[in-house]
Amino acid sequence: MLTDLSDSPPDTFSAAKAPLRVLIGADTFPPDVNGAANFASRLAAGLVDRGHDVFVEAPAASRKHGTFVEEHDGARFTVYRVYSWRWYPHDWLRFVLPWRSQAHAARILDEVKPDVVHIQSHIVVGRGLARQAVKRGIRVVGTNHFMPENMIDHTKLPHFLRKPVIRAAWADAASTFGLCESVTSPSRKAADFLEAETNLVGVHAISCGIDAALYTPSFEKRTGNTIVFVGRVSGEKHIDVLLRAVAAIDPSLDAKLEIVGGGDQMNQLKQMAKDLGIADRVNFTGYVTDEELRAALTRATVFAMPSIAELQSIATMEAMASALPIVAADAMALPHLVHEGRNGHLFTPGDSADLAAKLTDVLTLPDDELMAMKKASLNYIAAHDIQRTLSIFESLYRGETVTDPVTDASLDEQVP
């Protein structure tokens, strides 16, 4: 039976159906700070709120490993923290030993006896769970948040080896996701990309979703010009392009930049800001609490995302829920969120002059036009409601056929 979820009220999906035992497998999970970890946490919490029994397997966040009841996003559930090793080329990443992943998975599966396993990557935890779940006849759903290009800088591999390693990584992804009954990725662009790289077919485009009610838009008249970026302070985010763009903006606009997040390039980028003569206009916050992050978005004028490898960009969605205009690279999934001239602008990837021009356009808008952009961002984010995301995954967990929701329809159809 075809279950069309695109127009149904999100709080009525699957309302009368029995709760499920769901085991989520994640190679990155809080306290890690990244989109995949945030999604896995919000997914688990949302499923608990809907009455399901939820368990998570993830690498231990330190040398302390074992089984714990943890609280994430306001919900409590069991997390199997598997013994892990630190990946020293990265500033925080820990990983499970690959040759132990199936033994861990077998033990956890036999203890939990889940109705469904939902892996968040194919890398180590996901690979072990998928293979052991299939042996036990347990349905596996897979979600891909991973692009090898985003991790390659943290491997210290010489450049001549990077392309073959990326090809091998996609081949490995194909072998694991090929075991899944259904596979998803956060946007249509990301789903198409995964199909092209792995020869998988029928990959669903299911938004990570966001609870827009957690964010506070401000429609007060602006008193300054603040550009904000939220994300890892690492090479794949191309923050250097943003710094050069800010340096090129007319000084009379008194544009300030707030970089919210931490990462391995913090010191290099601080030095770059000094070299560009803008250190007094750039605030590197480091890691912040959720409340501090939301406050930074509320007080900003415009959000900038220079990354070229975003499979969806939860940070951009959070900015939209805060009613910010968006200026983002015209790459990967970002064009699904940014509609030219309506809720922001797309710039040529890597082109700091184009980014500076697009930021200047937003910063110099008359107040009524700026308000229109802010309202457009709010209107568009409604299609990414996390309750809809949860309902679709519930249907996939039960083996039902779903229709992917439309999350990138033209804003011309949505904004009066």
From TrEMBL:
Residues 33-212 form the Glycosyltransferase subfamily 4-like N-terminal domain. It holds the Pfam family Glyco_transf_4. InterPro entries: Glyco_trans_1, Glyco_trans_4-like_N, Glycosyltransferase_grp1. It comes from the Bacteria. Residues 221-375 form the Glycosyl transferase family domain. The keyword Coiled coil does not apply. This is D-inositol 3-phosphate glycosyltransferase. The lineage of its organism: Bacteria, Bacillati, Actinomycetota, Actinomycetes, Micrococcales.
